[in-house]
Amino acid sequence: MSTHVPNPSHFPSYRKPSEKEGPSFRDSSLRQRSAQAFRAGADTYDDVRPGYPQEVAELIIGARTVLDVGAGTGKFTATLRNERVFACEPSGDMARVFRPRLTHPLMQATAEATALATDSVDAVTCAQTWHWVDVAAASAEFDRILRPGGVILLAWNTLAVEDDPWILRLARIMHSGDIQRPGFLPEVSKPWRIDNTLRLKWDHLLSPAQLHALMHTRSYWLRNSARIRERMTGNLNWYLYEHMGFSEEENLRIPYRTDAFVLVREE
């Protein structure tokens, strides 16, 4: 495991982390275009994106029937131990990777239009998904499909950029847009309110090559041109090998945060 840290003389060039509550988009059309970038790259996503601590799924262990929305390749779906688990995912490429790995029924649908029957599930989960949805529309749809007493579980894995200046700069070079400040609260819409919160920290080991692959799973990379991708690759190579002095053979300790929230209906 690497123990490299940045040269203190470079610290002034490391701007402070964002204080935003979460990713933001200029308008709904930009959010939709950014989300559509995930129509490709599912194999790389599955290889290098981290999974979720089991403690997150345990927040809804009492729910009998669960729908995992925006399931992607099934990273979070695989942790669910409930009696009946369904999943939905709009990307055909993500669904292609999901289906050979998991036996759970998978529908090609969105958070705003799940196509499920009214009062049909006990919990809805959104892992690394909520910032891509229309919050008001998704909240209304979940209110429709969730039975009385049903809950929503929102979860994010976030690079812990506050832990070390080199991780903050790494996130910016990779254009990691899903960076929330420590202690953030997600946007919620009626009739839902946050009832329970779980915050965890843990480490993910990745080689420099895997960090490049992780960058390739970012929406910014997926939706941009070969010229911009070449520039991003050069910037990351410079940062890892020249600025930080890592070798290609090292496994680097990448600190992550997991933030999870259970939503219940307002009384």
Relative helix content: 25-40%
Low-confidence stretches: 33-37
Give the SSE string. Answer: HHHEEHEEHEHEHHHE
Q: For the largest beta sheet, what order do the strands appear in spatially?
A: 3-2-1-4-5-7-6
Task: Look at the structure and give the mean pLDDT.
Answer: 88
Which oligomeric state applies?
single chain
Fraction of residues in β-strands: 15-25%
Structural class, from helix and strand content?
alpha/beta
Profile the largest sheet.
7 strands, mixed
Radius of gyration: 19 Å
Number of helices: 9
Distance between the termini: 49 Å
Shape: globular
> What's the β-strand tally?
7
Structural description of this entry:
This protein is α/β, with parallel strands linked by helices. It has helices spanning 28-36, 42-48, 54-57, 92-101, 135-145, 165-173, 208-215, 219-222, 226-243, and strands at 65-69, 84-88, 106-107, 121-127, 146-159, 192-206, 252-265. Strands 3-2-1-4-5-7-6 form a seven-stranded mixed sheet.
